[in-house]
Each structure stands twice: as C-alpha cells, then as structure tokens.
Amino acid sequence: MTQKYLARRRELSEQICALIDREGYEALRVRYLCQQLGISTGTFYHYFPSQTDLILLLYQRIDDYFQRELQPAFTGNEVDNLRLFAESYGRYCAETGVAATHCFCSLPLSYQGSDHLSEARPISQVLVGIFERGLEKGQFCTSLSPRQCARYTMVVLRGFCFDWAKREGNYDLLEFIRTFFPFSIRGMVEGWEGSGPSAE
Hints:
Blueprint: H1 3-23, H2 30-37, H3 41-47, H4 51-70, H5 78-96, H6 98-106, E1 110-111, E2 114-115, H7 122-137, H8 146-166, H9 173-185
Antiparallel strand pairs: 1-2
C-alpha cells in the first residue's frame, strides 16, 4: 500500500467516524456512506473491501487512543494508572457521543473471524500491563491473574458506558465512573473508596 493510499483511507476513516458519531450504527450502510462522503461505491470498496473493515474501524479508534495517547501518560503508580484508564474510557465514550457508544454496544462481538473482545486487542493489553506491573509491585491485592483482572475491569466499564448510552447520556458519565468504579474493584485495591454524588 502506498502512502497516498493510506493517507486517503485515513481521511475517509475520519469522515466515517464523524458521521457515525452524529448518526449512529445506521450510518454504516455503504450506499449512505458513499452519498455522504461524495464518493462512488467502487472507490469506497477500494479502501474498505468488506463490512468487517468498517466494524474494525470503530474498535481500532479506541485501541489507538489507549495505546498511543493514554499509555505514555502512565506513572509508576499502577493504581493511579488504573484510575486514569477508567476515567479515560468514560471520557472517550462521552466525547465520542451517545450514538457512537450505542454502536459499540450493538456491534456483534465476533464478525467473520474477528473477535472484538479478544485479549490480544491493544486496549486489553494496556489494561493487562497495568495489572501485571501492579501485582509485581504489590499495589494490587488479589489472587486473580492480570488477564482476569483486566477482563473484569472491562466488563465493569462497558456496563457503565452501556447504561449511560441507554439513558441517552442523561447524566455525567465521568463523574459516575469516578464515584462507582472504585467500589467495583475495591477487592483488588485496598483503601480505594469512591466519593461524590450519585447519578440516577
């Protein structure tokens, strides 16, 4: 693939993501996307050969965010890194919007051999790394493996964001996570309690 091809695909990807943010999962219809992007279906399929590419696009966005933007901000305190991860996950969903979060919730977990909950995904690897380092340093206290801790954490965070999206974003997701996430993992982190207003 040439640099020109990759640059054009990246440009189209950004336009598609912006459209999904505004209109939700229904915007993933090829004819509609082509109409909105002002391109032919032939051009579209040149850059996105199958629907799998569109589905993976949504997941790659969040993977890139956590791997390239968040991970460099980590410190030696893995409890703080876990807090940053949780808050950043909520912030990402809130900034991306209710429609896009609905997309994450409604997309199939597995599509044509691609497992969107795979522990090999970059976002999962970032989280596993937090728990690996934290357990080695004695900053976490659990008999669960780092992978089990990471999986549980993602279940909790996805649940928070799913609830927020289902309620059409009618409360502050980030404040909700700051308040309730600590209670969800206090069995792994001693002395970390949540505080603040409830979000109902």
